[in-house]
Amino acid sequence: MAVPVFCNSCSCEPRKPTPRFSLTNCGHIFCEVCLQKGKKDECLICKTACQTLVLSKEIDPDIQSLFMGVDVLCEKYSKEITQVLEFQEKHRKHLLAYYKQKTAKLEESIKKVTQQMKQMQCMKPPEQTTQLPFSSTSRNPLSMPSRKQNGYSSYLLHSSHPSTSETVESMEVDPVPSPMRKV
């Protein structure tokens, strides 16, 4: 059911002998007779400056929708909304397919790299655990190990001048500072 149109000034409804109706940009409707009685470019109701548009079947569809019944509008817009939803869903599915394909490629790459890593581990000889020269345990964790423990060449043992490492080796380092010592 369409919205009834009537003049906001004299309340007459459109009939065959009645004059045309106009809509103002402030949202009021007037018959041609009342519109001629008022001031030009001024609304008869709210007295603001306004422009008018003659109501006919040729007016803009958005303005025509102001006079349609809600049931007709719902049907019209539900079709448009359905088309929009279908369009958006189609593009969402396309994007999802793209990401699924990209994910599958990445997973395949991960499998290949994992297989290559396993092959490389099989080819590598077993790791031997070797003790580092500084890993020997002694009373003082900061002292250097002797050359005899870590197997340095005998050249250093027989050198006539003490090397830096020999000098450092002979020094004892106290890890705990003395309270009497000045820093």
TrEMBL record:
InterPro entries per record: Zip3/RNF212-like, Znf_RING, Znf_RING_CS
Biased composition (Low complexity): 152-165
Any one of the GO CC terms: synaptonemal complex
Residues of the RING-type domain: 7-47
Organism for this UniProt entry: Serilophus lunatus
Gene from which the chain derives: Rnf212
Ranges where the record places region Disordered: 122-183
Signal peptide: none
Protein name as annotated: RN212 ligase
Polar residues: compositionally biased ranges: 127-151
Molecular function, one GO term: zinc ion binding
UniProt keywords, alphabetically: Ligase, Meiosis, Metal-binding, Zinc, Zinc-finger
GO BP of this protein: homologous chromosome pairing at meiosis; protein sumoylation; reciprocal meiotic recombination
Short name of any one Pfam family annotated for the protein: zf-RING_5
